Amino acid sequence: MADAPKLEPETVAGSITVAEALELESLKRGSPEVVAGHGSLSRPIRWAHAGEVRNLAALLRGGELVLTTGIALDGDARAARRFAAELAERGIAGLVLELGSVFNAVPAALVDGAAEHDLPLIALHREVAFVEVTEAVNHELLSRRLLQVRRLDLLQERFTTLMLDGAGIPEVLGALAAEMRNPVVLQRDDGDLLFHAVHEADSSEVLNAWDGFRRGLPGSVPALSVPLPSGRGSQRGSLVALALDRPFDEITRLAMERAGALVAVVTRQTHQEEVLVARDRGNLLAGFMDGDLSENEIVRQVEAVGFPRRVPHLLPCVLAGPARVPQSAQATVWTMVWREVRQELEANAVPVLGGLMPGEGRVAMVVGLPGAGHRESRADALAARCARALEKQVGSTDAGLRYVGDASRSWTGAIRSLREVVEATSSPRPDVRGWYDATRPDLHRLLWALRESPDVRSFVERRLGPLIQHDDARRSKLLPTLEKYLECGGRKTDTARALHLERQSLYHRISRIEALLGESLDDPDTRLGAHLAVRAQRLLGGADDTRPASE
Questions:
Q1: What residues pair up with 66 in beta bridges, in sequence order?
Q2: Among candidate residues 297, 299, 280, 283, the one with its CA nearest the CA of residue 204
Q3: Strand extents, DSSP E, 350-492
Q4: Each residue of 139-175: pLDDT tens digit?
């Protein structure tokens, strides 16, 4: 993995640049003139210091703004060049030479030495009190550092509050990305992606930038990698900030270190890394469905997270679970189910990309196929794998339904089909053995999609209104009898057997139903209309009382 590029000087926390220092009133009174190092005025100042000894560089630590009258130079050209070189080597921010006391003009040798090392050299044409300058610069530095400490404390408080309120790493990373105004990536120590949070750039741009960084590609976006702290002294992954939306600011590293401390604690909890990966990949698929990306744009992103090239066919599937798992445990439970399925697929060299869809309770996946003719066998195998995983994690093989879409040669086609599969999971589904084929025409899905339509409600009321009013006013219910009669295709003997009724009792009920509806159920069109109305009524939330009529 490539090392993160070194930060530019202006990103040093709590700093004031040489250019900013020249705007301070105490220095402006000296009529400052930049005579060398014009291109380095953005250097950060760590401290301001005045000195008049020839070996001044040995007394410094780097980053200082040095003020001098030049007494130690004593008109020696070689000493002046060496003085500039030693200060530059020590890494000072800039040199301020006050004229008038020793020199009436800046020595040419000093200018040449500063220019050679791109060291900012500023001449003061009027006398100033050095103590006032150092106090002003250092006061500004302390003020900025205090403001940054406060900003970081507020950010830490925000992170901690998020965690105490039940948020997780995705929310913390989202807050960090918003604070830095740049995307951030959480990765394992082997470089694999755990989770990413975007700011302005979309996931496609972020994943491409991150992939370029980790592979050390030329021209990669500037990045800053901060290792996560580990209790055992070993690195457990890292946070990577990408200067994709704007240059890094001065607290980027410190903000990442604050967030990283919390992230490290959470990722050491059981299964948290798996949950993060599952959420990130689920968010990726959800982003594909919400967007309108080209084939190449999708391929670049799936390759960045490890999906192989040139898979012949792609099969979208969704495992959706009923509300049997407590909300607080859903992310972990469904992640563990998904892990069982994924590991078994990978053990059999089956390419797969999948994870938790936003909102929990659903695992979406795109599985590789050697050919379209393998769709049913792969779906059967997936259903069996999901059943085993559900049995292990939830204790029931029917705690979730398997939905399978259409096989596609392209990612754009697979994403279109995945949208259809996800839509199929949103409607209530009767028991399905094995897996549900989301590509087949389905009256249930059609009625569910139209359930909010006023025309559907009007149709139900016109067809079943008198019967519904009858059932609302009496303990005895006739609508369940009509429903069973229609399910049996109008066969009275089968209906009586299904309802455990004598045939005469059933005939009486049918007569009552026909009288209320004002139509004969012997008519095929009447039965078809009534059947559609009964199915729609169920989806609209009516007919909850299935107790058989007693009359």
A1: 49, 95
A2: 297
A3: 352-356, 362-369, 401-404, 436-437
A4: 888 888 887 788 778 888 888 787 777 667 888 888 8
Q: Give the three-class secondary structure for 503.
A: helix
CATH superfamily, domain at 449-539: PucR C-terminal helix-turn-helix domain (1.10.10.2840)
Residue pair 177/197 in contact by the 8 Å Cβ criterion? yes
Q: Give per-residue burial for 201-219: e unless 16+ CB within 10 Å, then b.
A: bebbbbbbbbbbbbeeeee
For residues 382 and 357, is the Cβ–Cβ distance under 8 A?
no
Q: Which CATH class is domain 167-269?
A: alpha beta
Give this prediction's pTM: 0.58
Is beta strand 401-404 parallel, antiparallel or unpaired with respect to 436-437?
parallel
390-426, pLDDT tens digit by residue?
888 777 776 778 889 999 999 999 999 999 888 888 7
CATH architecture of 308-440: 2-Layer Sandwich (3.30)
Pick the most confident of 276-280, 427-431, 484-488, 536-540.
276-280
Please tell me the distance from the alpha carbon of residue 227 to that of residue 319, in angstroms, as a whole number: 35
Residue 472, amino acid: D
Sequence ranges of the chain with CATH classification 3.40.1390.20: 9-139
State phi, psi for 399 to the nearest 5 degrees.
-80, 0
Per CATH, the homologous superfamily of domain 9-139 is HprK N-terminal domain-like (3.40.1390.20)
The number of C-alpha atoms within 13 Å of 179 and in the hemisphere containing its C-beta is 26
Specify the DSSP class assigned to residue 508.
Answer: H
Residue type, 546: T
Phi-psi region of 258 (alpha: psi -120 to 50; beta: other; left: phi over 0): alpha
> Among residues 103, 68, 106, 104, which one has the least CA distance to residue 86?
68
Examine the pLDDT at 377 and tell me if it is beyond 80: yes
Structure tokens at 351: 């390419």
CA distance 544 to 531: 16
